[in-house]
Amino acid sequence: MLLKKTNLFRIFDWSIITVYLVLVLIGWFCVYSTSYCPNVNVNSFFFHTRPGLQIIWIFISLCIAFLLLSIDRNWYETFAFVIYIVTIILLIVTIFFAKPIKGSYSWLTFGGVKIQPVEFAKFSTALVISKLISKYQFSMSEKQNIFNVSIFVFLPALLVVLQKELGSALVFFSFFLVFYREGMSTRIVFVTIFIIFLSFLIIRYPYVVISNISLGKLLGMLSIILFIIFFSSIHNHKKKLKHLKYLFCFIYVILSVAIFLILFTSYNVEWIIFFLFLFIFFYLLIFFIKVRVSIYLFSISFLCGSLSFLYLTDCIFEKLLKPYQKNRIQVALGMLNDPTGAGYNVKQSMIAIGAGGFFGKGYMKGTQTQLKYVPEQETDFIFCTVGEEIGFIGSVLVLILFIILITRIINLAEKQKFDFARIYGYAVASIIFFHFVVNIGMAIGILPIVGIPLPFFSYGGSSMLSFTILLFVFLGLDTSKSVIKFTRK
Amino acid sequence: MNKIINRFSFRKISIFVVIYLVLFIYIARLFKIQILDTKYKDLADSNAFFKKIKYPSRGMIYDRKNNLLACNQVESKLRIVTEEVNNLDTVALCKVVNISLDDCRKKLNNINIHRKSKHYSKIFLDRLGEQECSNFRKNEHKLPGFYLENKIIRRYIYPCAAHVIGYVAEVTKQHIANNPNYQIGDYIGQTGVECSYEKYLKGKKGFDFFLQNSNAHFDHRQKLKIHKNNIVPLPGKDVTLSIDISLQAYGEELIKNKLGTIIMIEPKTGEILCMLSSPTYDLSFLDSEKQLYESISRLAKNPYKPLFNRALNGIYPPGSIFKMAQGLVFLQEKIITPGTLYSCRNGWPLANGHPLCHIHKSPLTLTSAIELSCNSYFCWGFKNMIENKKYGTIQNALDKWRNFMYAQGFGEQLGVDLPSERKGMIPNSQYYDKLYKKRWNAFSIISIAIGQGEIALSPIQMCNLAASIANRGYFYIPHIAKKISNCRLNSLYLHPNYTGINSKYYVPIIEGMRLAVTSGTCNLANIPDIAVCGKTGTAQNSKKDHSIFMGFAPMNSPKIVILVFIENGGYGSSSAVLIARLMIQKYFKNTIPNTDKWIEDDIKKLVILKYATKKN
């Protein structure tokens, strides 16, 4: 009886496989719709067209997926580093040998077949990280460990940046979700969110209000103070907040003096603010020396770090970013309306999705899609086709399918007996989630344009293959758990 | 089996919260742009469909005898797109469009043929003939960069009736703001029938839809035509006017060099047979857009105001012709009877001989008062009405009187189907209460008894008075449209309006008017074989008196009503009556008998212009 249950086909997680197949199928129909061209000679060989090539890649992916399901889990743990090193070498090779395609140097050509090593680097990095963290008595709570693991994440990310594929490099940040799950301090998460918030403020509100200080900076400084007060108060509930009272009083006095000076004199307020921060700095320093609680040290370093970040962001935004990248960010933040440049893609994409309405215009009947108004519509903006041709219903269906896939992977990961499988599962979920958020977010005009594909949807062999491998390796790991479970019983 | 306890398992929950939050935000966003916002659908359509407007042909305008007055004409232009021109064969071009080589070179130089910037194009040749057009179509492939453009322009056949027909011009921003159906480049009627019947004449625009792909924004040749959604333009409806263009032209000839207006109405239907206002202008200036605006601004600066339609927009004191309306009201209100006698001593005796009157027999009846145009008779009548006890107060009496005047078509727009008609003025008691601070009596307002003072009528209202007299108690609102191809005329023009005065009271008035023609003030209008009834008027104003003649013919079963108004024409009988005489004969006999030729010549030569008289 029990032996019957060990049948491999029984123990696969069929729900994930079903969702995967449905997504791939919808994706292929979308690619077919975007590539349909009534004027092109019908007699031309089907497998030379995009949907034809995509079908070949899907077939290859399914074959590989089947093979992966039969590989033992130990194999991955053993060869994780080897795979990682191979992909790193591939990435380095790509930098030197790639021919530029649309401004990026990320494609390697092997006898007519183009592959993007970046896509596979995500998989190998996921393996390496799982291997590292799952080591016995390895704790992500320690800062040294976080640093060590981060090196393995940032190395491929840096190489990808060198290939001028900024979007794909950002994907590697999704591993921090895994780190968080594995015990990375919550403070880091808060600080990261706060830093994103600060840079948003500075970029979004560059208008100068008083004495050379922009509105963004002013709001940033205010939020730094609030953040420190908030932080020290939640860690201070036992000490009755006595020392905080003085801090509050002083801040109130300084602020009222500052407001008085702004209203009645032309005094440079920057100095007042500088002294205010200096005071807070020394105040906290004295307390740290007296009490030696790490919260004060954290507050001090946070204060210095965020203030310098505040002043650096301006420079980074103005000088380091390329004009088109700046443009994209400004368009996404709604500061620029640039219907011919960076705004064109977003505008056309939103028109396509918005025109779909509730039921969509019908398969192969979307004017935006069929008349090729959305640039990159079979790769990065594939979601437009869903939005326009299947409408709100289709879009929500696709969103829900993705969320089902991701939550199912996480749930499955939590059930894993071995740390390696769990961490790898989280890595898979994080990568897919990041792609999903960024790709659809830019298509519906919430996030800036970042050229990364929608998993299982977008046209392209490398991404199809790499996401399939990513997913099915996890399913393979999951199977071995079940096999072990059943054999032990 | 021992369960693995992980310290950080609870963090799964916060991760799930983030995931569901993203899902919620994205679904909300999709809901907003796909369901709440409808603008994206329109934007997608404006991307995908290139709408080519097909203009309908504007309706024709005919006169009552089916003479074509206004039509459309295709004008061909040759446009040159310098960017696409290469290896231009100038000789071939000259042959095709039939111009000399020198001329051609000059034109090409003017156009600056070597400027090859994008979207630069100019009109190479205007007004191509049919022969040249077909020649060009045959040789089109040899002349890259040249395109034939057809433009429909409005053509007016006759150089008269400008005020009646009006003209069309391109819509302005204000028109578009008022009526979103118009777009830049559309034509709209500006005055006259072209304006008032715009909605019939205009027709309905058609559209050809072209699917254009994203590249078509830059290349208009990549279009896929779809047939099913195309909208065929509906041509405008033809309008037949009630005017007789030959009568109109004759009238304009007579009134040349005089300021004034002639209106003729068919009283049985209210159709306007001719309506002209002098000075007038020639509609043929519409040939080109540029010329139109120049001409209009030039006409607007002319001190005689040729753009001003005096027949509808002029407001004048009616003078003696107002006496008929007065007499009718007195009879209806039983203030007088046809036999009532009033005295006149070269003026109204009650107010020391004011207003003045000319020498005639005294006392007299209503009929002779009209025949001799006695001022005093109507002052008596008016005073007796205003001060009559049956109305209670003087205010009530005046308002009663005013209501009768309104019923005869005064004081308000009649509703003529031409734009910008003026109201005129019939004062009411509130007006005088305000003016005299409630201290007024019949003597203070006596000048309105004889059609002077505050009374002001437009010529069409005066003419309408004649129509209601001719019809003995009712009138049709004067209108210019006789037929609109297959539509019904506005019902306003198909029902008679009653004046509220019994038809028996018209008899003494008409008798008086007939006597005025045979033996009274306007005996110059006495035509041997047509029983003309008429009345002169001399409207006093700051300059020389206006000369007015109002009449109808024949006496029984009237066919026409005529009003001639000559600004500063002097005493009523001097010019207006003569013009009326000629117009009536022209209508009934179609020619002027030899015995009257000298009158025709005299009238044509007569010059009455303000600035000309000032110099004398």
Structure description:
The complex is a heterodimer of chains A (489) and B (616). With 489 residues, chain A is mainly alpha-helical. Chain A contains 20 helices and four strands. Chain A has a two-stranded antiparallel ribbon with strand order 1-2. In chain B, helix 10 (245-255) packs antiparallel against helix 20 and helix 14 (366-372) runs parallel beside helix 19 (506-518). Chain B is globular. Chain B is built from 22 helices and 18 strands. The longest helix of chain B is centred in the first third of the chain and has 26 residues, at 11-36. In chain B, strands 2, 3, 4, 5, 10 and 14 form a six-stranded mixed β-sheet that branches. In chain B, a hairpin with a 4-residue loop joins strand 11 (260-266) and strand 12 (271-278). The chains are: A mainly alpha (489), B alpha+beta (616). Chain A binds chain B through residues 177, 180-183, 348, 350-358, 367-368, 371-373, 387-388, 391-392, 395-396, 399-400, 403, 406-407, 410, 414, 417, 433, 437, 440-441, 444-446, 485, and chain B through 1, 4, 7-9, 11-12, 15-16, 19-20, 22-23, 25-27, 29-31, 33-35, 37, 39-41, 43-45, 47-49, 211-215.
